[in-house]
Amino acid sequence: MEKKYIDFINEDHLHSLIRDTKEDKEAIRAIFAKSKAKEPLTLSECAQLLAIESEDMKQELFETARELKRAIYGNRIVLFAPLYIGNHCINDCKYCGFRRSLRTAVRKTLSDQELINEVINLENIGHKRLILVYGEHPMYSPEFIAHTVRLCYQTKVGNGEIRRVNINAAPQEIEGYKIIKEAGIGTYQVFQETYHRETYARVHPKNTHKGDYMWRLHAMDRAFEGGIDDMGIGALFGLYDWRFEVLGLVAHAIHLKETYGVGPHTISFPRIQPAHGMDMDLPWRVTDEQFKMLVAILRLSVPYTGLIMTARESSEVRNDVIDFGVSQIDAGTKLEIGGYQKEEYEQQLDKEQFRIGDTRDLDEVIRWLLTREYIPSFCTSCYRLGRTGEHFMEFAIPGFIGNFCTPNAIITLSEYLEDYSSEETKKVGYALIEKEVAKMPEGDRKELVKKRIELVKQGKRDLYF
Ligand code: SAM
Ligand code: SF4
After folding, report:
1. Ligand 1 contact via 146 beta carbon (within 6 Å)
2. What pTM does this model have?
3. Residue 404 carries which DSSP code?
4. CB of 376 closer than 6 angstroms to any ligand 1 atom
5. Helices marked H in 155-241
6. Mutate which of 194, 220, 236 to test ligand 1's pocket (most atoms within 8 Å of Cβ)?
């Protein structure tokens, strides 16, 4: 059955691209020009960017990524929170604090009531978008996953509600995807971890489900057949050469676009963090400089794919890298299962998957974004109006951001400022909103946005374009 899918990772080709491509300033500048026209890059163009060594080219790369990000996404950053549902796991991934051979890991799956309590706590601080995370275990069947997604949507408190539930769960059969899709998920995320087969085999033992590289590589092909057109791919950086993983991600994106007409909605690029019982050499650890480059190169390579930078990274790194192409971040993140119900929270690694780097709460993260002149967005409009997959691509056109995304970001931000924010954040928030509205061209849309901000202040909610 697997044979019907294409093996789109040609390792020899990727290795030769890395080995044989040398920095060529003229070629690189031509690629920058192509990027500015918002065209996706080929694998060899991406390899040319990965070959950049000189300081001046690096700076031009960052500048181009910054420009492209502004042109496509404006100054919005979408915010979400991860919610860990359970850490039972039949796999034995060497880097993960949930792996089955770790006898000292404290195992837990949220009961329905505990899940509801977690969601209430997340809503009470202002979250509207979640990603549910599961270990791989027969307990976490497609029916169970669908049930947890529905519970999140059903749980509402005050003005709080979850408007979009994404999931990060193990690869499924096509039938399983249909069941999950039915529950109304947003993005289905699964990371290949590493596209390099030998490394993959080393960190994912053969006698485990996850040991099957091709089963995982084709997770998105099956998801598409199961009706899911909103997909998130990713690689765990630090397992193998970062340049190879970038090429792997881009090859994956090209494959999805060519085969199904829809590229991935998001790409994640977690860097490996210390985890409970983790004992492995990491000769391929990615430096901060390389991390910044990989984000910028992904930005140029897949202009319309959202890039997610998680709280694995420290607040300093997030501050340094956010300009170069990131469109989504998590905030106020707690990884412990049941962690959002705790007043005092300090990481205990035997209960969590890995150590996080950015421990600020949601309000602090929002204030930081506002002071950097980013509009924190809780917008879920496209997903709710069916602007996903192929349809999303049609909408990601000039004018769309100004007419839809920015207004929606402003209105969801004003909801946050009214319902959940600290006084300090509220002040900075409304100051930025005023500036943003002033920037909008005169016309009906601008008047409507002003009117809707007033309506939000009067207590109306969930007004979107
Ligand atoms: N069990 C499912 C799976 O493996 O696909 C669900 C996801 S797992 C809980 C989420 C992701 O966390 C993994 O895909 C992996 O990339 C990442 N992860 C695991 N251990 C990590 C670590 N030590 N540091 C950073 N990220 C890690
Ligand atoms: Fe299980 Fe996922 Fe952790 Fe691997 S990464 S041990 S599959 S939870």
Report:
1. no
2. 0.95
3. I
4. no
5. 174-182, 197-203, 213-217, 219-225
6. 236
For 360, list phi and psi in degrees, rounded to 5: -65, 155
- Residues 6 or more apart in contact with residue 287 via CB below 8 angstroms: none
Ligand 1 close to Cβ of residue 137 (< 6 A) = no
Atom 4 (ligand 2) nearest CA: 93
Counting atoms of ligand 1 from 1, which one is nearest the CA of 84?
A: 9
For ligand 2, atom 6, the nearest C-alpha belongs to: 99
The ligand that comes nearest to the alpha carbon of residue 237 is 1
| Longest Cα separation, the chain | 63
Residue 397 has pLDDT above 80, yes or no: no
**Residue bearing tokens 């506002």:** 370
The amino acid at 38? K
CB atoms within 10 A of CB 35: 23
Structure tokens at 374: 């980013």
pLDDT number for residue 390: 58
CATH of domain 75-396: 3.20.20.70
Q: What percent of the chain has pLDDT over 90?
A: 81
Does the C-beta of 96 come closer than 6 Å to ligand 2?
Answer: yes
Give 210-257 pLDDT, tens digit per residue. 999 999 999 999 999 999 999 999 999 999 999 999 999 999 999 999
CA-based angle 410:81:394, to the nearest 5? 55
Using CA positions, which residue lies closest to atom 14 of ligand 1?
Answer: 191
**Who has greater pLDDT, 349 or 171?**
171
pLDDT one-digit tens code per residue, 258-279 = 999 999 999 999 999 988 888 8
Is the confidence at residue 41, as pLDDT, over 70?
yes
Q: What are the sequence ranges of the domains in the chain?
A: 11-67, 75-396, 402-457
